[in-house]
Amino acid sequence: MKQKRIKLLVAIMTLCLVSSFTVAIAYGGSEGNSPGTAHVASAIPAITSPELWNLAEDTNENGQPITVSTEYHLNFTIADANTLADLDNVTIRFWLDGTATENDTDAEANHYSYTWVEATDTWASLTGAGYIVQDNCEDPGTAGSVTTYEFRLGFKVSRVALYATASNWKVSIFVWDDSDNGDADQTLGCGIAFYAEIGMTDSTHEWTGLTPGVSINETVDGDGDIDFTVLANANWNATTKASGDLTKAPDTIPLLDNLYFNKTGVAVNMETGYLDIPGLTNQNPPTAEASPTATNEVLYLCVPGGTPSGDYTYTLYINIIKA
Amino acid sequence: MKKLLLLLISTFLLVYAILPHASATVGFGVSDYDATVTVYYQETRKVECARIYNTGNETLNVTISWTSSSPSANAIGPTVTWMILLPDESKPVTLTVTGLEMGFCNGRIDFVCSASREGQGGNPNVAGGTAHLRLSIEIKPVQNTTSPSGFTMPFPIEYLLIPLLAIPSSIGTVLYVKRRKHPSISTPKLAKQKGQPNDKHVRKELMKLSKILQETRDSETSDDTLAT
Question: Are the beta carbons of A166 and A98 closer than 8 angstroms?
Fold first, then answer.
């Protein structure tokens, strides 16, 4: 038994000795050059977690109506195993489906493009500088050493960006790397709330030299009308009303049968509730903020016979509503 | 020298007259959310319904009022308020609403803005705006109640306690009212009241009858015992 154990020990020792010789030969037995090339493939960048937030980032706006000329944030994460220095650019497109397609040229009414270029670390909006909030955009910078980063685009849309419910405004995010590998995400969308704006070109109006009992209705002084401008993002109607009768306590000129308005066509008797202005209904929206629709309302006043002399006053209201 | 001075002054005045001046302009915009919001019955909450914009170069005072256009006009505690908008400023508009009546309540938010018109005569032309809001006033949905042991009740504990207290008290009330209405089902004490002279006689007769019955039973039981 003891002899068997000794034999086994000798066998193991011999085996260890032989194997150590073999390793020594392998390492130092010969010298030479073998060029070692390790090819690292270009990893495909990936977009994840796209989200549409309000400015405070406490309300998720995906699928909700957003408002014009208000800052929103588009957040998304991009990963690239070659580090984000490998990225070429990130492009975001925002368009109203049905009136524009993804690759259309930019227009304030229905198409916006935003880009970030890695080589220059710059954000830009092709639609106009006013529609990107540079200070609130976030990116990894040039030659970023990280492999993942949460980007943020701070953006606004024009006051003429077309009204749409639900998710008809589509969002697409594209990322391309230096080897032309790319990824895309098209999961976000939103609506845009109806917007109407009025600019009062004429802030007051008056009539002078009115004669009581004269049947001819007099238009206001100056060019005979009330001038105003309109910006809207859908078809609109102009409406108007008066605060009440024209008064000079204790006397009044009643609205009824005395104060009329129109743009074209038949004049309408002014009331204390809003009424459509004839000729200013179902008007098309302008296509650029810089080009509001200039229009006017014509007023006619007739002073009844027996009206005491003096200055009679009231307030005129003009309101734009969705047609 | 005088001529030169005169020439300079007139040139200055001419240039000043030709140069464009920044005139005061009133510009007012409204983004109408046209929102549909659920408000729970008796609950008060804030509802953001619009965003208003000052697009001119004068500070605006904006008056905000709510007009209900639905039959249940009292469904909302209306909030009439006002806001100040600086040039190029925009603000969200929030209404405080309370669900006072169940059902739908549609309404309109009217905005009227005015800038200072000091030193200007005539009748003011004022820009307005409108937003819309639809409210659905509903019962608050039932929340599951979990007991300390982990058992989840499908309804609040109040739903069980209220009937448990209400049912016995209702039964008690009904019995009390019945007693008051039908004294004949009253206790013997009530039968002893004055004005019922025949009651004594009836009681005596009943006592006699009960004695006879008792005796009869006793005799029957003694007969049975004997038979056995």
Answer: no
What residues of chain A lie within 8 A of the CB of B33, using their CB?
Answer: 65, 67, 193
Q: What is the largest CA-CA distance in chain A?
A: 147
Q: A196-322: which CATH topology?
A: Immunoglobulin-like (2.60.40)
Q: How confident is the model at residue B221 (pLDDT cuts 50, 70, 90)?
A: low
Which architecture does CATH list for B26-116+125-138? Sandwich (2.60)
**Domain A46-192, CATH:** 2.60.40.770
Question: SS3 of A300, please?
Answer: strand
pTM, whole model, 2 decimals?
A: 0.74
β partners of residue A246: A253
Selected residue of A58, A70, A190, A198 to mutate for chain B interface (largest B Cβ count, 10 A) = A198
What is the percent of chain A where pLDDT is above 90? 76
- Using a CB–CB cutoff of 8 Å, tell me whether B124 touches chain A: yes
Q: Does an H or E element contain A123, and which?
A: strand A122-125
- Cβ pair A193:B32 closer than 8 A: yes
pLDDT at residue A289 is higher than 80: yes
Residue A86's contacts (CB-CB under 8 Å, 6 or more residues apart) are: A42, A43, A45, A80, A177, A178, A179
CA distance linking residue A145 with residue A80, whole number of Å: 10
Label residue B131 by pLDDT band (50, 70, 90): very high
**Interface confidence (ipTM) of the complex:** 0.83
Domain with CATH 2.60.40.770 in chain A: 46-192
